[in-house]
Amino acid sequence: MLGAQLALNAVALGAAYALVAIGFVLVLNATTAVNFAHGESVVAGGFAAVAMTAALAMLLPAGSAIPGIVLLPGVLVLTALLGLAIAALAYLPIRNRPPVSVFVTTIAFGIIVTNGLNAAFGAAPRAAPALLGTGTIDFLGVTASRQSLAIIATAALLIGALAFVLQRTQLGRQFRACAQDPEMARALGIRLTRITLLAFALGTAFAGAAGLLLAHQFFVTPSDGAGLILKAYIAVVIGGWGSLRGATIGAMLIAVFEVGVASVSSQPLAEGLLYVAVLLVLLVRPDGIFGEPQRLRA
Amino acid sequence: MSPDRSPLTRQSLPLIAGGGALAIYALFFASSYDQRILTLSGIYVIMVLGYQFIFGHAGALSLAQGAFFGVGAYVTGILASQFGTGFLATFPLSIAGASLLALIVAVPVLRLASHYFALATLALSQLLLLIAVNWEPVTGGANGLPGVPPITIGDWQVTRGTQLLLFVWGLAVVAMLIARWQRNPLRTAMFTVMRDTPLAAPAFGIDPGLLRLRAFMLSAAFGGAAGALFVHTNRVVSPEVLGFGIMITCLTMTVVGGRLRILGAVIGALLLTHLPEWFRGLDEYYLVAVGVLLLVMVVFAPDGLASFVKPFRAVRAPIGTPTRPGTAGRTPPVAPGLPALEISGLSKRYGGIQALDEVGLSIGAGEIVGMIGPNGAGKTTLANIITGIARADSGAIRSAGLDLATATPTAIARGGIARTFQTPQLPDGLTVRDVIETAAANAGEAARDRARAAGAITSCDLTGIADVRSGTLPHGLRRRVEIARALAGGPHLLVLDEPAAGLAAAEQAEIADILRTIAAAGPAILVIDHNLEFLRPLATRLACLDAGRLIADGPRDDVLADTAVRAAYFGLVTAAGGAA
Fold this sequence. Notes:
The complex is a heterodimer of chains A (298) and B (580). Chain A is mostly helical and 298 residues long. Chain A has helices at 2-31, 38-59, 72-91, 99-121, 146-168, 170-180, 182-187, 192-214, 225-239, 244-264, 267-284, and strands at residues 136-139, 142-145. Chain A has one domain. Chain A has a two-stranded antiparallel ribbon with strand order 1-2. Among the domains of chain B are: 32-242, no CATH class; 339-414 and 526-580, 3-Layer(aba) Sandwich (Rossmann fold). Residues 1-7, 323-334 and 574-580 of chain B have low confidence and may be disordered. At the A-B interface, helix 4, helix 9 and helix 11 of A face helix 4, helix 5, helix 10 and helix 12 of B.
């Protein structure tokens, strides 16, 4: 039954990565901006959970366990605020400059977050509480980790809620309109700045939620951002630039790759091979596997 | 092209005085700790100078500069500490190692644009960091390798303090001289054209791939050299040298100092190495302040601190005698009687639209052919295929022995075919002369190129505004600059895509005059336009495209009287089915 457990672990990891990748695509679609602070947003979510746990522990009687799931609303709100800050300080002031400018300002924002967390919490790995307790339960004859199941359920809930908003509400239609043609959307009276702020808030909150989900089993360290943005990016490149469904599939593939390679060798090797894979994918398909929609015209 | 620079101008005096004062302080008054910080500044100057090539001049966000620095550091660290190899061998090997890595990854990475390039270089950096931490037998793992000896050349051991400081800054000066030599005004202008108008660069003989490769290799070589000096200063090599921190430091120095100028590298490196000393009170939050600084600089002063110091390059001396316009120095490669352009059976389909359908056309030397047709008839597609920007699905297209169907846009431009664009593609920051000289410079011989550029400036009547920045020019003049640029390469065929669009009647007449003079000197001209007021007095021969098919080609008056042309172009069809 080792295979089933591995598969469950891979799906749980993939579900968390999917949240990161979806958050990345939300910002990308609304603004065409590549947010390099996205990895740090995941880290910020993890540390928000760590900090809230410490604060709650002071209020509650000693020894009482705090389930991670109660931290989710707080993590979402805090990282949404972080997203608004990224939009207001690192994107909106320079939205009309060449894309490289936004790359650099969001990198700068990432530096601020990383080093702020480093100064406040130290460089050592920290862990957030498990979502709904630790241990295993028997599920369809398979011994499954409670944490893995809880991660999958939480991620599914968040992704489902997002899909509902995007598909069934007026706001979602505006979002999709901006993604397809920002100029036309603006001409139709959609307030681009509002949508931009919302996209950053929502996208960063998804990253933050992933931070909470990952920070129990894998710990969280202030310097994790670079690795996480790369994984989100790879997922988006594999899945097709700008596609939410593709990003989810890409995230799952990365997780399966990572868990699979790590189970037969080591974690660093899995990560290293993943980076080699990126370079190879870009060698074969310089525009990503499904290509990038062209907005440029001579 | 060697620009004439006056050795000293008034503006450079404060800089020289400041540099001198800093040097006196560093050598005679600085504590050994201060000297160490200044040594580090010198090392970073070299790294940043390299980074300016790829980030500043080529305009690509590379996140691999830290990786090149780290490779240089590990090559020296491992060879010097484990095998006792001397500096004269390790230093060149560090540079070679970093350059080799750049060359290897250039194949998958350099073709990538924008964020793909940034993330691919980030992946490379992360990969190298993983290797350094996990390949313990060779790299010493997370702890690294101690015992890197000081720099030794023959019997001279460079001691810490003043000697090392002088040695490092001596190499930094060498790096500045190399950078200055590599960034001569012409190449700097070419980088600007490639960065700001990527579409136009290959159309004027600039090879973007080659320029980017040069920038990337130089950045790697400088980074490797800096890394080697860094481990000799620290006497230990550890994964820290491959960490993201060094990359961030380099990026911040480049943005703060300025991404294009040598002075920017010096200002950025000196400032960022001394900031931690001046802001000790911030403690652990110092790096947060660095992030804030980087953010603020990009938003409020994107050209860096160096942009507040005027460039101390003297105005260029007057250029030589202009060669005769048109022929402009290059012998027309077309033998008399041979067509300048020969097209047959050319077809191109975009999805469901047949943009070109079995088009055939032949243009002789000195001929002006007007290509008319309604919007969407395929005129611009034809121009794009002639210049190699788009590829035909089928058909033959040749010019003076060159097969245009397979040649790259750069090769086509160098083969003597020049074009203008519907929307002028001029980098705002370059002067008219710079723009034209970049196009003239693809034949290689500098003096002749400059004379040809001067000829193009004269023949398009731009002498008075040759040193004005393109960004400040009104639309009509921008169109003329585009024509002059097309002429500057000494082409035998000019393809002009709506050269008179958006111009007043008087300006149109001026353009027509210029084109007639050019054609009289030899080159053939294909003018795409639908403005008959402009074309009628200019072109003796007209061709008409409609829905991708060439429906007429011949003497102007015959074509204008043609039934099909009138139907397609003017929409004039009588009830009897004939022309009105």
